[in-house]
Design brief:
Number of strands: 30
Helix content: 25-40%
Structural class: alpha+beta
Distance between the termini: 73 Å
CATH superfamily of the domain at 340-463 and 475-604: TolB, C-terminal domain
Shape: elongated
Strand content: 25-35%
CATH topology of the domain at 340-463 and 475-604: Neuraminidase
Radius of gyration: 43 Å
CATH architecture of the domain at 340-463 and 475-604: 6 Propeller
Length: about 600
């Protein structure tokens, strides 16, 4: 059997080299390689190396004098059977997709239905053109990898340039801030010098008045004491002069005794220090990720495992596909857990508020101001970057939910009415821009690229921003309570509806289909009182839900299927959380609570 197989192998006049010229092989020629290119990972003969050197002048070429640096190869070892070391691999078993020797065939593969000689297999592959096709595919992939490597190296250089440029910008900004602080110091010192000069002038004038009065009264006193040798008329004249001077001195003394003692003190403006304490840096470092295009789009069909087995079971694969090359190095996982550390309280109650604050919604504008809804006091408040109330806008009822529409516009729902109020930030003030009247009551509201998602407790609706009804996306069971709030993912693919009454978070697709339903005791609200549960989706897609009764804010995965973590609890100072917002500008988690006159701000780790 063995002699039959071996005699069937047609080698012809083919020669086998340890290293064959890659270019010649592509043209069905078998030529021994004399050079090796490390950049291309290919071998070339004397003729083919010349066009390579012309095209790639910077590539390092190794001659046979440096063959020790060439890739390791041993043709003889490759042809040996791993199980029967003295035998050559001469047969291919199609059933097991395995290269075998004649001994393997006798002992292990006699029952296999399809056994073929490698020589016959090679002839068949050559006739079908599979060798050429595979070679072209691998060559294309090789060029793509080289191009990508070059692109990545260029990207690395541009990153270094960007890094140095940003360092210069940070330094320039720091100098501007220092210059501004220096100017503030100059202004403050100038005010101090001006005030001191004024006070010095005033005190100096008083000293001069005292000196003049002392001099006058001293002269009159001496003259008065020498009156014994004078006539009665002169004595009276001296008396009169002394009396008049005494009255003037008395007036001067009274004027001086009514003056307050002048002192200087310094009352520092804490606004700057407070503002700096809320910042985590001089600005944001942003990472832009651009899709990289492969150097050359392959037009060859995908090489499957079965097709590769046709080429003597030689497997070529790319571990990283072109779609993977644009994966960003920055963290952008929507399931990345949010962790917080220290927290501060900021009072948001104003003199105009008659009741305790009940913050039902929070959103952030482009400039960094916060807009919050105060349920009990029927207003919307604008907070600056130090969380100080700058302005407020009175509403015709209790605000329930809020969402951002654009850089200066928000939409607010009001309890038990069929209206959506659009409120605009104009010159540091909050003004009602327009009112959208609908055919049902409005509780929860969310916005994504001109689309409004609104709950009325019994259904989830899809509207355009101008009020056109697109669809009733989903209708809930008639027995369910109405306290449902909603939020939308950054890509608009998922709409989340939190239901405090049933301890549930329902995740809908863009067309309203239910993707998942998560039931968690931590999501429960106050069963004795109507309560819209706070829900927020960060810019990265992280989903945060308030558990009012559990005094907890939990994070769930992007598909709404499982709880990831408890972000904050009662141990962190949270009591009946009603609204939550993660500010990427501040790097902070902001929590509004039931009947609390302050908000809590947690610094993210």
């Amino acid at each position: 059997m063995a002699s039959k197989f071996e005699s069937s192998i047609h080698r012809g006049s083919d020669l086998f080299f340890d290293f064959s010229c890659f270019t010649c092989q592509e043209n069905d020629r078998n030529t021994e390689a004399e050079f090796y290119c490390e950049e291309c990972s290919k071998c070339y003969c004397n003729k083919c190396v010349e066009p390579h050197n012309y095209l790639f002048k910077k590539h390092a070429i190794l001659s046979k004098e440096n063959i020790s640096k060439w890739p390791e190869t041993n043709v003889a070892e490759q042809e040996k059977c791993q199980e029967h070391k003295k035998e050559k691999l001469t047969i291919f078993c199609e059933d097991h997709s395995q290269l075998i020797c004649h001994v393997c065939h006798v002992h292990n593969h006699l029952k296999c239905s399809y056994i073929v000689l490698i020589a016959d297999k090679v002839k068949d592959l050559l006739q079908k053109g599979d060798f050429r096709q595979l070679s072209e595919t691998v060559d294309t992939q090789h060029r793509q990898l080289i191009q990508m490597k070059d692109d990545f190296e260029e990207n690395m250089k541009s990153l270094e340039k960007s890094y140095n440029k940003i360092l210069d910008e940070i330094d320039a900004l720091r100098k501007k801030i220092t210059k501004s602080l220096d100017q503030l110091e100059i202004n403050t010192r100038l005010a101090l010098d001006t005030m001191l000069a004024s006070m010095r002038t005033s005190i100096k004038t008083d000293i001069e008045h005292c000196t003049t009065s002392i001099k006058n009264i001293t002269c009159l006193t001496e003259d008065w004491c020498g009156r014994k040798d004078t006539s009665e008329a002169l004595s009276y004249i001296k008396y009169k002069n002394c009396h008049d001077q005494s009255l003037k001195t008395d007036a001067v003394l009274k004027a001086m005794t009514t003056k307050n003692k002048m002192t200087l003190s310094f009352n520092p403006d804490t606004t700057i220090q407070h503002a700096l304490s809320t910042l985590t840096g001089l600005g944001q470092i942003l990472s832009k990720v651009k899709q990289l295009q492969t150097a050359e789009s392959t037009t060859h069909k995908t090489v499957t495992r079965q097709e590769m087995s046709k080429a003597c079971n030689t497997v070529f694969s790319l571990q990283r596909q072109p779609s993977d090359v644009n994966q960003p190095s920055v963290i952008c996982d929507p399931n990345q857990v949010i962790r917080v550390k220290s927290s501060k309280k900021y009072r948001v109650k104003t003199m105009n508020d008659a009741l305790e604050c009940y913050i039902t919604g929070i959103c952030e504008k482009a400039a960094g101001e916060l807009i919050i809804t105060d349920h009990w006091n029927d207003n919307v408040k604008l907070l600056d970057q130090t969380y100080k109330v700058m302005a407020h806008c009175d509403l015709p009822g209790h605000p329930m939910s809020i969402c951002s529409i654009d850089s200066s516009l928000v939409a607010v729902t009001v309890c038990f009415v069929s209206k959506v109020l659009f409120i605009r930030v104009t010159n540091g003030q909050l003004v009602i821009d327009r009112i959208l009247e609908l055919q049902h009551r409005c509780w929860g509201i969310a916005h994504h690229k001109g689309n409004l998602y609104i709950t009325n407790g019994m259904a989830l609706y899809h509207y355009t921003v101008d009020g056109r009804l697109v669809s009733k996306m989903y209708e809930y069971s008639s027995g369910s309570r109405i306290d449902k709030n909603c939020a939308v993912s950054p890509d608009g693919a998922r709409i989340y509806v939190a239901n405090a009454a049933s301890n549930q978070l329902v995740t809908h697709s863009r067309d309203g289909r239910v993707i998942s339903t998560l039931t968690d005791p931590a999501l429960g609200g106050n069963s004795a009182f109507f309560c819209l549960p706070g829900i927020h989706v960060t810019d990265l897609g992280q989903v945060l839900v308030c558990g009012v009764q559990s005094n907890t804010i939990i994070q769930v995965d992007m598909d709404g299927r499982k709880r990831l973590t408890e972000v904050v609890t009662a141990r962190d100072g949270v009591t009946n959380p009603r609204s939550v917002y993660y500010s990427k500008h501040r790097g902070s988690l902001i929590v509004g609570m039931w009947e609390r006159d302050d908000i809590r701000v947690y610094e993210a780790q």
